[in-house]
Amino acid sequence: MGGDQNNSDDYSEYDSRADKDGGLCDNSSVRDFGQVFLPALYSLVFLVGVIGNGLVVCVIAKNRKECTMADMCLFNLALSDILFVLTLPFWAHYAAVSYWTFGDFMCRVVTVMYALGFYGSVFSIMIITMHHYVSIVCTRVKKIPLRSFRAAVILMGFVWFPSFCASLPTIVFTRVEHNTCAPDFPDGTVWKQFMYLEQNILGLILPLALMIFSYSQVIPVVLRTRLSKKRRAVKIVLLVVTVYFIFWAPYNVVIFLRYLQTLVYFSGCDEMANINLAMQWTETITFIHCCLNPLIYTWVSQKFSRQVLRIMKKWFPICFSYGKCPQISREPSERRSSVHSNSSAVSSPMLL
Fold it and tell me: What is the mean pLDDT of residues 291-299?
């Protein structure tokens, strides 16, 4: 993704690439497969991602006066995913016709949105993980006031500044050339290898290592508490780590194969075709993760579910009036106050 911002293979480059015997590779099978498979999947991910993450943004914006640090983290994650999925219609059209038709300016704009959305999502997930760790394990650490303007500014900086820095090489080198929108790295440089390694480290190794470390500390603390829902909380934690690994590991394996390909470890036509096909499959699987983020990080929260139902009742009153939609369960005020007065672990949406 970050290293392949065009979201489809650079077909013209691959068609003209020589194999180890000096002949030219025929990439028509890979291109034909992408023309049928990618537009439909990208369109589906776009629709689900916009609706799901848009609902998260609406709920948090509507309750902005009661926004906590956890809500700010989820808000940034949803914004990142929306920014990311808004580029998918462009990549779907690009895959369908196999050449870029939107001009150099839009190529750069879409690439900026894509790169910032991708890395913004990664850094948001890491910050959510660190927030859970600090809130549950490091209870003696002095907390920043959750509803302060300073906290919002600091959080935005921790998400978007490193995202911009990580995206900068791709943003600088991306241009339209020979009807393709892709990074054009200078010959004789290691920028392409750097981009692949950067994506492996930031896209999988660092977030997964952080999750494993943080949640290995969180689970024992949760199990020692007297929370009645501690088993559910542990299951959610394990779900977060498992889903992230399942959706990101295959893609990062292919990215690493792309890195080895730049070092001429794979130079045969069949090998290159298989890597490109694997890239199309695993990349799309990774895209689906941004649609699951609203479910994983917010819909598991009873508080969020109630807020969603209130919005849905307002938007679709007919559905609720005929009893076709689930009714909003009202939580007694006494129960709410007791929950909020519990340990700081309860402040995490994953444990509500």
Answer: 75
